[in-house]
Amino acid sequence: MVPIVLGAYKEDYDDALPPHSYINVDDFKSIRELVRYLLYLDRNDTAYAEYFAWKEHGQIHVRFAVP
User: Fold this and answer.
1) Which tens digit of pLDDT belongs to each residue from 2-33?
2) In which band, very low, low, confident or very high, does the pLDDT at 56 lie, cut at 50, 70 and 90?
3) Do 41 and 1 form a contact (C-beta atoms < 8 A)?
4) Using CA atoms, how far apart are residues 64 and 25, in angstroms rounded to an integer?
5) How does it sit in the membrane (predicted)?
6) Which helix (H) or strand (E) holds 5?
7) For residues 61 and 56, what is the distance between their CA atoms, to the nearest angstrom?
8) Torsion of CA 28, 32, 34, 39, to 10 degrees
9) Domain residue spans in the chain?
């Protein structure tokens, strides 16, 4: 499953998540455009799989905020 994100600044997602591992609602001009893209991914396994390519070479560093 590919996360679809909304709310934080794009830079915050870019700092916390691997590149091309999520879909940001703000990258689309309209909800209609987002839906069209999601339907495209549903029909195109190769395009969908690109969202998981980072697993071959990427790392996730978990950061916890300490009060």
Assistant:
1) 999 999 999 999 888 888 999 999 999 999 99
2) confident
3) no
4) 25
5) Single-pass type II membrane protein
6) strand 4-5
7) 15
8) -150
9) 4-57
Q: Are 49 and 10 in contact (CB under 8 A)?
A: no
CA distances from 64 to 16, 61, 67 (A): 12, 10, 10
Answer whether 41's CB lies under 8 Å from 48's CB: yes
pLDDT recorded at residue 2:
95
Task: Find where tokens 């390519």 sit.
Answer: 53
- Distance (Å, rounded) from C-alpha 66 to C-alpha 55? 28
Q: Given the structure tokens 């909800």, which residue do they identify?
A: 31
Token pair belonging to 60: 């996730």
Bridge partner residues of 23 (DSSP)? 4
